[in-house]
C-alpha cells in the first residue's frame, strides 16, 4: 500500500533513478530522508556569494542552527575584563540588595596577584562578560578550582555563539581570517592552561570540519582538534576521522604530517587525562 515511509523511499528512487519508478507520487509528503548534500550546497553558495559580492547578508551554513546575530559587536571586545562584576544593581535598589546580600564580594577587576586569589577565593564573583575569563590566568585558576557548572555553561554558550558567528569558512561576509585565527589561538591557550578541551569547541569542530577546505586557519584548527575531550571517543570516528580522511588523501605531504602530529597529541592528551582519572580513584 501507499504508506508514507514507502512513498518517501519511492520518491528517493525517483529522484536519482526516475526510470525505475513509473507511478505518480503526491507532491507533498513527509520527509523521511535528510538531504546529505545540504552542507555542500550551502558552502558552495557561500563561496559564490563571497566572490561575487552581490549579497551582503550573513548566512550561516551550520546544520540545525539559526542564522547568527548581527556582527556589530566584535568578539575581542568581550575579552577585556569589565569594570563591574556580574552583579550590577541599579542605584535605586542598592540598599535593598545590600540587606539581602550579606556576603561581601571581591571585584574581579581588582584581582591582580595569586595571593589575592587565595585570600578572596570564597567571595569572588565572575564577570558579566565570560569571554574575559579566557585571557585572565587568575580567573582560569579560579574556574578550575571551583568547578561550578553554571560558570562552564555560561562560558560554553558564549563560546559556541562566537565560533559560529566568526567562522570564516561558514559565514559569507566574514573574510577577516586574521581575527578568527587570533580567537582560535586564545581558546587553544586557555585549553592548554586548563589541560582540558571545551565541549563548545568540540561541537564547533564536528559541525565545521565537513565544510573546511584544509587551508583556512589550518594550524589553529588542528591544535583545537588535539584537545577534543576523551568522553567523546564513540562519536569521533564519523564526526572527526571521516572529514579529516577526505582531506588527508587529497592534500599535500605537509598537511598529512600535520594531521598525524595532531592525532599523536590527541592521544597523549587522552592518556594524561586517563592517568589523572585513575589517580583520583581511591580503589584503583
UniProtKB/TrEMBL annotation:
Family annotation (InterPro entries): CENP-I (IPR012485)
GO CC list: inner kinetochore; nucleus
Keyword terms of this UniProt record: Centromere, Chromosome, Nucleus
Main localisation: nucleus
Magnesium keyword on record: no
Swiss-Prot/TrEMBL GO biological process terms: CENP-A containing chromatin assembly; mitotic sister chromatid segregation
Keyword Nucleus: yes
Subcellular location as annotated: Chromosome, Centromere; Nucleus
Pfam families according to UniProt: CENP-I
Domain of life the protein comes from: Eukaryota
Family affiliation: Belongs to the CENP-I/CTF3 family.
Name of protein: CENPI protein
Organism: Cephalopterus ornatus
